[in-house]
Amino acid sequence: MMIAAMITGYLDAGEISPPIRNHFVAAVCVFVIYSTRGFYWLKANPIKSNYKPTLIFSALLGIILVSVAGDLGGRLVYSS
Fold first, then answer.
1. C-alpha 27: how far from its chain's center?
2. d(CA 73, CA 44)
3. Structural contact between residues 67 and 23, judged by C-beta atoms closer than 8 angstroms
4. SS3 30
5. What are the φ and ψ backbone dihedral angles of 13, each rounded to 5 degrees?
6. Helices (H), ranges, the chain
7. Contact between residue 77 and residue 23 where contact means Cβ atoms under 8 Å apart
8. Mean of pLDDT values over 15-39
9. How many CB atoms lie within 10 A of CB 27?
10. Which residue in 13, 43, 56, 61 is a FRET match for 37, CA 20 to 30 A apart?
11. CB burial of residue 78 (10 Å; 0-12, 13-18, 19+)
């Protein structure tokens, strides 16, 4: 569903100005981080010593990216 939402938002934006592009890139980064994290969670060996730190780091990185994407989206909404 997120891929469909990103494609629809990108097409709906019309002119792709730098603020829109920044928000779109941040949303794509969120999708990539959480998708990679999900595949890692399913396929990785939980016995490995780097399993938990990797999941924690990717979760924190995802939270930061969601915050950045939300801030950029809010700036788009309230700037016009």
1. 4
2. 34
3. no
4. helix
5. -65, -25
6. 2-12, 18-43, 51-79
7. no
8. 88
9. 22
10. 13
11. exposed
Q: Which two tokens stand for residue 71?
A: 């801030």
User: What percent of the chain clears pLDDT 90, i.e. is strictly above it?
Assistant: 48
Q: Are 44 and 51 in contact (CB under 8 A)?
A: yes
pLDDT at 57: 95
Structure tokens given for 57: 């780091």
Residue ranges per structural domain of the chain: 2-79
Give Cβ neighbours of residue 1 (< 8 Å, ≥ 6 apart): none
27, 69 in Cβ contact below 8 A?
Answer: yes
